[in-house]
Amino acid sequence: MCYLESCSVSCIHLSRFLCRLIGRSTIPSRFKYSSSGRKNTEIDQIVSKYSRTPSTDPKGTLTTNSLKSRDIAGPSTRSHRPRSPSLYGNSVLLQDTTVQNAGSGLVGLKNLGNTCFMNSILQCLSHSALVRELFLSRRYKTQLSSTSKMQGKLAEEFANLLTDIWSGKCDTVSPNKFKSTVAKSAPRFVGYSQQDSQEFLRFFLEGLHEDLNRGSRGKRKMEEPPEGLSDAELAEHRWKDYVLYDNSQIVNIFVGLLKSTLACSFCGHKSVTFDPFWDLSLPLPRSSIGSGGLSLKSCFEEFTQEEILDGDEKPTCEKCKKRQKCTKQFSIERYPPMLVIHLKRFSEVRYRSKLSTRVDFPIENLDLSSFASSSHSSAPKYDLVGVSNHSGNTSSGHYIAYCKTSSNTWHRFSDTTVGQISSSDIVTSEAYVLFYERRPNR
């Protein structure tokens, strides 16, 4: 029971005592609880609305060996006290989030000791309608896997945490039990040392996927595709191959498909492969750093530009049957409903360093059509719903989240501190992980 809920129960007993003193037989309505012992909130409406059998759309897959330079670690740092909100823009701190914002999700998360990295990611996930509705509606319960390592406990604790956040009863929630469950799922998160928020997101989503995976068990068998397939048909074949083993609602929400085209410089032969991705880790172009012209589009251009493979990197050409100089290029084949973009600010090259370069990114209407594979005539557009920010350097830093709330306003979440901010303050040099939701087709 949270602190405010305990106070509310005490108020009920006090109200009953006063009623007996003044001869009043009823309790004031604002202190009444439902028969289940909990206040009627927006959650009950959501549960009622979504308590039905989930879609059995099988699309979804998972892989952990995607793309290039995917495992550059973030800062191994210690947390420090949050800076004044005025340094982050025109923040307006909420004086009483429980009274003013019941059921709005404007709830802080207690820092358990350098766990701001986890809190920033949890806030971004909490304010994603796709994720929130899956767990608040309890639809995930029909998908729990009896063979997962955690036996569904990670999904259950996440659902319990979201229920507390969106109950409207507390202005602060402690994620202590959730944190303990995460540590059992991924031992690297045992203890309370600072971690990288993007790495935590990946491990956590993988754990949720395992808890909800409806795919086949056993050793994965990759079926060779028939000859003569078009690129679009080959992509569909590869997607179904992955889905056979990795099929969950978490995958349906977060996983996309990347196309890699390898062209031999000697004979011109092209070979195409497709790899699922959880997120896209975008490099910050060195040529643009310091010029003031760095944008998210330029990061995508750097990521998808043609790469020359020569020398020790020469691959074997399928047609020449020998190692040849080749070019390699990425494009996006499948766009996930939730697109997570990781800005690679941290480097392990020689000395650990951080790039504190501002990257301009759109709040609305992100258009990635110019990076789509040739089989796409158009690409969906995305709106930003959350940002995990890292301030400081590689030896001392702090994570906070900017989230677009259900009231269509932006708020800053720094552990237990919650404040409203202007959308004009969202783009900063501290942006690290971006959460974009795909716009519905019109």
Tell me what you see in this structure.
The chain is an alpha+beta fold. Helices cover 27% and strands 20% of the residues. It is built from eleven helices and 17 strands. The chain has helices at 3-22, 42-50, 97-100, 116-126, 129-136, 153-165, 176-185, 197-212, 231-243, 249-254, 296-304; strands at residues 92-93, 108-109, 172-173, 256-264, 270-277, 280-282, 307-309, 326-334, 338-343, 346-347, 353-354, 366-367, 381-392, 397-404, 410-414, 417-421, 431-438.
Using only C-alpha atoms, the radius of gyration works out to 24 Å
Beta-strand residue percentage: 15-25%
Choose one word for the global shape: globular
State the order of secondary-structure elements, H for helix, E for strand: HHEHEHHHEHHHHEEEHEEEEEEEEEEE
* Class from secondary-structure proportions: alpha+beta
Helical residues, percent: 25-40%
Query: Main sheet, how many strands, which sense, barrel?
Result: 9 strands, mixed
Unreliable stretches covering 5 or more consecutive residues:
3-102
Give average pLDDT, whole number: 79
Distance between the termini: 44 Å
Query: How many strand units?
Result: 17
Helix tally equals 11
Key words describing this protein structure:
alpha+beta; 27% helix; single chain; disordered N terminus; globular; 442 residues; 4-stranded antiparallel sheet; 20% strand; 9-stranded mixed sheet
SSE inventory with pairings:
Elements (H helix, E strand, L loop, with lengths): L2 H20 L19 H9 L41 E2 L3 H4 L7 E2 L6 H11 L2 H8 L16 H13 L6 E2 L2 H10 L11 H16 L18 H13 L5 H6 L1 E9 L5 E8 L2 E3 L13 H9 L2 E3 L16 E9 L3 E6 L2 E2 L5 E2 L11 E2 L13 E12 L4 E8 L5 E5 L2 E5 L9 E8 L4
